[in-house]
User: Fold these one by one.
Assistant:
Number 1:
Amino acid sequence: MPLLETRGLTKRFGGLTAVNAVDISVEEGEIFAMIGPNGAGKTTMFNLIAGLYKPTRGTIKFKGKWVYPVQEFWSTYLPPLAGYYTIAGAVRRAVGAGPLPIGLRPHAVTQLGIARTFQNIRLFSYMTALENVMVGEHPRMHAQVWDALLKTPFARKEERQVRERAMEMLRFVGLERYAEQYARNLPYGFQRRLEIARALATQPTLLMLDEPAAGFNPQEKAQLMALIQEIRSRGITIFLIEHDMKVVMEISERIVVLDYGEKIAEGPPQKVRADPRVIEAYLGKSA
Amino acid sequence: MSKTIARRTNLLLAASRERKIPYLLLGIALILFPIVDSYTPHVDFVGDAGRWILLALGLNIVVGYAGLLDLGYAAFFAIGAYTFAILASPQFGIHISFWPLLLVAAFVAAFFGILLGAPTLRLRGDYLAIVTLGFGEIVPRVIRNAPKFTGGVNGIVGTDQPKIPAFLGFHGYSFGLNPVPYYYLMLVIIVISILLIRNLRNSRLGRAWMAVREDEVAASATGINTVTTKLLAFALGASFSGFAGSYYASKLFIVTPESFSFIVSVTVLLMVVLGGMGNIRGVIVGALVIYALQSYVLVQLPGWIASATQALNIGFLNNIDVASYVQQSSILIFGVILVVIMLLRPQGLIPSAQRKVELELGTSEESVSDLRGSA
């Protein structure tokens, strides 16, 4: 059974089909890459999987559990209310079609074990590096409101443990010296690393990296590749979007190629590199 | 290595001890104040400042920590006050003791915080502000138009005063009209509130609030349930106004819908922003400054001007009544003072570390003018 599996995943924005019937399956423990020209729908795929967008059609399964569609009461009806109380929802109920399918909300997807970074770094700018990583620990903490209000011994203990774990994570990505710096004051490369540390703090099974090497020089790219290998050796599956062919060909074991929202090739790097459709997508049709 | 760490911790301990001394002195001064100055209107005046501090501290959770602009905070203050008034007055003949009602009012206000917060969850910034503004208008209107429960425009008269429970001694002393026990009550409530809010800020929940404030999408991708996080901000923020509401209702003997108008919401927001969003000390100072301006400086100003002109004894000034002009334009003067303060200290009187960095390095969200200015 694959770790992550999408079937016929489709997303339309008005008349534009950003992702069209894409099937991918990420196996446990591998480094899986998604490439494609600009606007091919790669980041849209990430956002669909992470629960930020609702698919137009198709299904997403992670560890054999449904990410989309789900019908669980809390995550389905209460907070988003979308689909159920709209006119379309009323029509559907009237004809017995049931409520519109709704996916897990982003935080629930993260709690299921999918962590991600963003193409344009999205850190909590006015929190320190350490606090950023500590936020990543949030879903695994158990302190309740009264614990927080009264600073119970349990809350103190948990807070201390989380601080230590977060410090450990900063050490892992090599940022322990910057623990007390505001995230916004860190240099670009460190911000990327910090985002990875924050994602890892949620203890994911699958780490999705959206163009982690963007804007890096060759040396930084080499460091990043080493870091990704090290994360994988901890038993975390990697799913990355990357433009840099050198990085992709070197570290990934399997590649899927998107073009205009459609999957045009899939397989090991050597095979994909030789695929005429891939060459066409990147370089244009030969005369 | 370990030596330097030990030295650092020693330095830190010494620093924290030193930093505590001013607070200790302030605490002693506040406790002694009613004893030294036995003129009760003064005590009354300072005690009332506490009510504003409490409101500002509560709103600071919503606006400063969670970053949700709330323009209808007075609604929760009203709900707290009316909860107390209905359960401890001749209105329904229910007379529950003040002490449990303090908590009941906080819980009811928190409940309404969730109720009014829920529909706004998908809104941000300006849109959120407009909806909360609407709630701030709805609540006093409902109170005005439900005379059966709330006494309508006339309000609820004859609310109960707190009594010290008999088992604690003092012969079950009732607070009555004496402002001194109210002063001490407010002092205790504020100290407890500050401790609770400080704990909140440094907790899992506090971090979640700040994460949602900084970047909601990233927060949800990090596993934070933004819905419950925001609702908890509304609920906990409102609960502090529940304390303030029951204090206010019992001290004044009466609650009327006029006491919870839009201007109250704006004043509290003003205290939070002017003092320094997200910083407890800043918010307290902001509350004190605005309160002192509104209820002391602007009230006394015409008198000061009158005596000053008399002392100067300049001919043409004696012929025109400067003091009455000043009195008529007191709101204008208030506005000018606010503008000047914000121009001089845009980050607030005592800004939180975050706001300080933000204003030193430019705003967090780049505006078009930022980008064009740098090009």
Note: Chain A touches chain B at residues 50, 52, 79, 105-108, 110-111, 115-116, 118, 122-127, 131, 134-136, 138-139, 141, 143, 145, 147-151, 155, 158-159, 162, 182, 184-185, 198-199, 202 (CB under 8 Å).
Number 2:
Amino acid sequence: MHALLSCLIWLPIAAGVLILLLGDRNIVLGRWLALAASLATLALAVPLWAHFDTNTANLQFSQMLPWIPHFRAFYALGVDGISMPLIVLTAFMTVPVVIAGWTVIETRPAQYYAAFLIMEGLMIGVFAATDALLFYFFWEAMLIPMFLIIGIWGGPRRVYATIKFFLYTFLGSVFMLAALIYMYVKAGDYSIASFQALPLSLIEQRWIFAAFLLAFAVKVPMWPVHTWLPDAHVEAPTGGSVILAAIMLKMGGYGFLRFSLPVTPDASRELDLLVITLSLIAVIYIGYVALVQQDMKKLIAYSSISHMGFVTLGAFVMYEIMRNTGSLQGAGMGVDGAMVQMVSHGLISGALFLCVGVLYDRLHSRQIADYGGVVNTMPVFGAFMVLFALANTGLPGTSGFVGEFLVIIASFRASFWYSALAAVTLMLGAAYTLWLVKRVVFGPVTSPRVAALEDLNGREFIVLGALAAAVLLIGIWPAPLLKVMQPTVHHLVSQAVATKL
Amino acid sequence: MHQLLLQSSSFAPAVAEIWLMFAICVLLLIEVFAGARHRGLTATLTLVALAVGAALTARYAQVPQRTLLFDGTFLADELAVVLKLAGFLLVAVALLYSRAYLEQRNIQRGEYYILALTALLGIFVLISAGSLVTVYLGVELLALSVYALVAFDRDSGVSAESAMKYFVLGAIASGTLLYGMSLVYGITGTLDLTTIASQLQGPLNAGVVLGLAFIVVAVAFKLGAVPFHMWLPDVYEGAPTSVTLFIGTAPKIAYFALTLRLLAQGLAGTEAEWTRMLAALAVLTLVVGNVVALVQTNLKRMLAYSTIANVGFIILGFVAGTPDGYAAALYYTFAYVLVALGSFGVILLASAKGFEADQLDDYRGLQRRDPLLAAAMMVLMFSTAGVPPFIGFWAKLRIFQALWESNHLWLVLVAAAMSVVGAYYYLRIIKLMYFDEPAGELPHAPREAGVRFALGVNAAAVLALGIAPGPLLDLCARLIH
């Protein structure tokens, strides 16, 4: 019985409630408390990684307490190689969010920090839950702080954006709930493991797969249910965008890996082409959409959708690979790529949103046209921005390369055309990202306001520096990450290709 | 002596009703002789009477198993005890929230409290109804007291109008109920619900189905199910807010008991028929309630449509037609009244002299003016929308599950889709309170620490029962089985 995961979940929530009670009047204390809590959570995540046994696909750090006897639901936590890296990512990304809001947030700062810390706990809960009801509990509860974050601290159209965000995700989730109840009625309890072991007919699997697809596709988001994301991103405050891009989108990918593939393997095999097609549309079409954006945040938001297409592509090419080669190892590569892509995209998109936040705090504009020649006045910032932009295009040596490369190689084994189409993104991604950098960072100084810009302060430097180090570390030496995931991915693939019929 | 003792113990299960009757008589006398000099005395004594009543009920009304008393007219079981305790609690809290509101409007009079108590007595009679006569007695006692309460602010034309509407439509519903009962009586030859249940086995007589249809209409009217909901928005909007609070809470428990005793227990033999009727009503109710609520600008009216939508869920529990479904309906009723108590409480606490606080616009920027009220309202709204970690989520889940288990797949999908529609208007209130700036100066509500604390506890209960829903779920399951 380990309480480590419980601490990771409840420590930030407790700190959030405490900050809420301290109120805006004690915000100096509240701020330091928020920082301390997020650092403490990160510190708790270190033993999670360090003591993780990389030789097994079994759940580790498990904790199980009776919760709702009536539903036979348990407060059951545990991690494997898929959820553990995402929990560490969550703990890691909350720290820059807290620091980034340090002096910037002036309205109701106590509620701001409280919302992010509570959010952190709930997100870790989503990844750690091994009981489907507990999973859903955290999954839905998370909407509340995010709804408030966008609605209170967001931009001019924040109300429209946040209600759209809430209703879209709520709609997706209720059908997932219906599917979960259906399986509960059949299986007799809510544990995810028993759902995975539950024999289901093909027709049942198709319906359940559809319900899951709706819930997870909205979260990822996949084309054509992606339209909430650019709105939410643009209107959210910097911290909100970072958490949205870095963690919340990953829940969709996580859902596919945790539920869709192992619970409905036959429907997944049957409908893999659907997901692959949607992923490729996201990769290519959304890439073109990103190209024409005038707003920096919107551009990065579309780039996120395009990159998340790789996650779903990587997860679902395995069936085609199995058909062609019959090699479990090969099928696993796509999932490996999807996982690395999730972690890497979390870091890179988070960092890019923080970069935009740095500019926005100074000029209060997100329009590309308002900038130009920023590197002349902010050389250090320029260096970071270029680094993250290159990582976003998948430059070797950065984390962006590893994930995309693995997915493209895997999809080549499935079909030449998949990989050819997926590889278009290398071109498109480079086009929109580098063009953004060219227009914002390089060139002559375009306006007196840009000429008056000041370079990064110490707080911003630490935040971007830490993210840059992480991006480079995974890019140069991805082996530890891959090693942590390996047994779990192997197990997942064997579950996903086995038939339940 | 021995004989006498036996008899007195057979009265014990009815201690709640007996005490309440006694308290009403005493309070009436006190009001007549001392009411004018000591304003507020009756109010305080009413709360004391409710507390004593609850204590007596908890101590003496327990029965080891389901028992019929007084020639089968009075039914005593564990469910009745729990529902009565809930009734005491709900009325006490409702009166507590209302006190300042009534004082500001100069209608803080003893009769108000006495009418509330007679309504509660009607609720209890209904809860323990063992025969058709007791059912009707309870329904009428409750309804007549409530008509008077709605019209209590006699200088208000709107209140008088809604009381009139309520009375006329309510009288039709009572007539329908009586007619349906008379048909059932004519065919079975008994008024006793248990005997009716045992008579109505096997193939059905067309007369029974006809009688059943009339009864279902009356029940639907009382619950506020579409298309018999017309009175509900007008009454909710027109009545003084304190009365709306009253109508929205304790009577819902009574109408749950009405549906359970009459349809699920008395007319159990016709289950196939009435579940089909209720299924149609439930779908209509869910759709109309949620869709019409979207366009309201008056908060009381919006909450009225929200009530209709929630009633749709309660009916869905009965549609399942299984004890599990009834337990789900009971749990949903508890979850709903807890939230209704709080949300009308917020309106009462936000109002001031000459300011009803019933327009949605009055809640703009409430977070700045009164963070506690705003936070409480947010919790309550997220709960009714069915978002965890609040109790409303488990209530919806419980209903969904009961429907799945009784193979009503399509109803689950309708209800799920409608709860997404419903989420929109609950979010709108949160948006007004949290995202918008206050629109101009509004009258400041007087702040009473005690009442505000009670409201805080109310909202905290919604959260606490959402994080640990186990005990209440188990209780509901046990009460029905």
Note: Chain A is about 75% helix and 5% strand.
